[in-house]
Write a structure and sequence with these properties.
By secondary structure, the protein is α/β, with parallel strands linked by helices. Helices cover about 40% and strands about 15% of the residues. The strands form 2 sheets. Strands 3-4-2-5-6-1-7 form a 7-stranded parallel beta sheet, with helices on both faces. It has a 6-stranded parallel beta sheet with strand order 8-13-12-9-11-10, with helices on both faces.
Length: about 450
Amino acid sequence: MTFQELNIIPPILKALSKEGYTSPTPIQEQSIPGVLAGRDLLGCAQTGTGKTAAFSLPIIQLLSEQSSSISTGRKIRSLILTPTRELALQIDENIKAYSQFTNIRCTAIVGGVSQKAQERALHQGADILIATPGRLLDLMNQKRVDLQFVKILVLDEADRMLDMGFIHDVKRIITKMPAKKQTLFFSATMPPEIDKMVKSLLVNPVKVEITPVSSTVDRIEQSVYLLEMGNKQNQLNLLLEDKSIVSALVFTRTKRGADRVTKDLAKINVSAQAIHGNKSQNDRQNALRNFKSGATRVLVATDIAARGIDIDELSHVINFNLPNIPETYVHRIGRTGRAGLSGTAISFCEVDELPFLKDIEKLIGKTIPEVKDHPYPMKRIPQSFKSGQPSKSSNSKPGNSRPAGSRPESSSRPASSKAAASTKPASTRSEQPKPKLQTKAKANPPRKPKSEWFKKESKVSR
């Protein structure tokens, strides 16, 4: 299929040709006709499948066809809400490219930078506004944004907005828009919690699901290193000695972790920059620009900051920390293997992350191959995580179990059932000598006078 067959107007086709687009991706094929027909849309597709063009192209076309009816200045007629600054700026860049031969104007407003330039852009007017919820609410409260003319609402990366706690902000923003509008709801994953929001916002939507939520891109080669505690940085340094790893996006769980990994890589002369919420917007954009251009070999990021990182030729994704939400793993590794290329996803896992690994494998429906040829193997893998992969350490656990030491004692004294019963509840080391005390009953010839012996017996019987 071609974009012409999707009934895209000539100015947009010209822009697509200039940008090197040849044919639509599956999500674009299935989404664009429904959106052009004015239908609400529920789109579920992994990152890197072309979601941005799937909603941007029909929006540009619909607004271009309606532009003649706007005679009182430029009004915001489409709002695109995204969870992160990077993603908002990426969408803004794409829409400007797609609409370059139309009269459509778009602008992005995000936090982390001065709002002065954004105020000027809003004053000049915009047909399409791309925004993060926090900054948009700020400007709405200052009466600088008017959403009463919005005809098309897009919630992009909706699952992440929910994860990040933006649900209430999004609801407040929606109340400021007309009740009658077209809503496009895009998400890489569809957890159950999102259903309530979908039902409240969408009316008889077209549902487009390109790949199952639990699946990962087949082109991506996945592997995991089971590491002894405290050796992740050593293993990362060792991996990066391989010059075939041209570019690597490394995910950490925390901002401090991202900074620490970046500093440690600098010590071995690996060019790396960190990108996370504590960095200024300018620093984040510079880091992203350097990574895309190849000036920086490694970009170390937290999950939130990584949304909007769109790099076609990213060779490796490395999970320095495994995510505790299995869907996040799908998001992460989807950053590589884009635009039809292959990719490699490598994960580091310490013993306390084994439950996360198990959840991820359950979600994606496959066991991630373990790399065993490395200098930092996990010394002891809990029995519950050995299913399906025999390990040398599997024989060590039974020998160390405490009950094994107690069984011979109980079986060697079948006659003294009361004594056995009394020693079972008390399994502490302090009570172990008690069976030896009972052996004094064998030494019946008393060393003390009989009178004292009988007193002792009476005390016991009481």
